Amino acid sequence: MKFRFLVVLASVLFFTNVNAQADCILGVGVTSDSIISDIFQLNDMQKSKLEQFSTNIKLQNETLNNNLAEVKSKHPQSNVTELRQLADKYKNVMDSMARVQEVADKKMLALFNSNQYELYLSLCKDASRSAYIVVPAVYTDSIPNENR
Predict the structure, then answer these.
(1) Please, which residues bridge with residue 23 across strands?
(2) In this predicted model, what pLDDT tens digit does every residue of 16-27 receive, in sequence order?
C-alpha cells in the first residue's frame, strides 16, 4: 500500500512538473533590442520590426502599469472581500501584460527564418521552457542548406 502511494505521488509530481513549464518568452520590449538582434543575427527588416514591436509593447505596458497604480491607489482595502477583489483586478492586469508580451513575441518569431527559429527552440530547451510554436518565414535571400 505504501509503495502504491509513493508511485502515485511520484507520478503526480512528475506530470505537474512537466506541465508547469513556463513559456519561453523572447522578451520583445523587455530585453534590449540589440541583444535580441545580435543573438539571432536579425536582418534589417527584422531589426526594424523589432524596434516597432518594442515601442508598441512599451506603450501598452505603460498604460497597463498606470492601470495597476490606479487599482492599487483607489480600490478599498479594509476587509478580506475587498482585498480579494483587489487581487483579482491586479491579476487581470498582470494577465493582460503577459498576453501583450506573448503577442509581440509571436509576431517577432514569425519573422524569424528557420535557422533563427531553431536557435530559439534550442535556447528554450536548454532553459527548460515551453517554446511558442510559429511557422518561420522563408526569405528569398536565404541560402538553402543543400547548397552549403
Answers:
(1) 130
(2) 444 457 899 999
Q: pLDDT tens-digit profile of 73-82?
A: 888 888 888 8
C-alpha distances out from residue 109 to 30, 36, 80, 134, Å: 15, 11, 43, 7
Q: Which positions ≥6 away from 96 have C-beta within 8 Å?
A: 64
Cβ within 8 Å of residue 139, ≥6 positions away = 43, 113
Composition of the chain by helix, strand, coil, percent to 5: 70, 5, 30
Contact status, residue 85 vs residue 63, Cβ threshold 8 Å: no
The DSSP string of 30-63 is TB-HHHHHHHHT--HHHHHHHHHHHHHHHHHHHH
